[in-house]
Write a structure and sequence with these properties.
Length: 159
């Protein structure tokens, strides 16, 4: 997935499923950021649909910036930054195996075990999450703005 976590770093964690069009936008933001110069204490992770493995990526970080498609009731491509407490996540009521653990459960486990550090979520409103590989036009147009939003969060003076 990535290198070993370092204490006190900022972790940018792009999550989502690239097989469902706009659902993969967080991974694409992470991929774009990984190609850019960032401060030395910033580590970019393509978290995809990593389940509990995401906890190891967050461990010891001073800040996690989670980037994901988020249903916010906004126009497609809208970008918002918020804290986990500002969002109501839908959690599965019954998990049959650890392979079925999603992001809400990972964040709940992180909070319970105190692994989860300070976190900000960069949410991008999807247009479609149907099977396919290409982003919708609105989300594709928002991708550079999402990358810039994260850059401003990790290095405000350089953005």
């Amino acid at each position: 997935m990535s290198q070993e976590p370092a204490a006190g770093e900022v972790v940018v964690l792009g999550v989502g499923n690239e097989l469902y069009r706009d659902e993969g936008v967080g991974v694409l933001v992470a991929r774009a950021l990984a190609e850019q110069p960032l401060p030395a204490d910033v580590r970019v992770v393509e978290g995809a649909v990593g389940g509990l493995d995401l906890l190891w990526e967050m461990e010891q970080a001073r800040l996690v910036i989670l980037v994901d498609a988020a249903e916010m009731g906004e126009s497609p491509g809208t970008i918002r930054v918020f804290a986990p407490d500002d969002v109501q996540m839908l959690q599965k009521t019954k998990v049959a195996s650890l392979h079925e653990i999603g992001l809400p459960e990972v964040l709940a486990f992180g909070k319970l075990t105190e692994v989860c550090p300070a976190m900000l979520i960069v949410g991008i409103q999807p247009s479609t999450v149907e099977p396919g590989f290409e982003l919708s036009e609105a989300v594709a147009e928002a991708l550079p703005r999402a990358v810039q939003t994260v850059r401003e969060l990790v290095a405000p003076s350089e953005a």
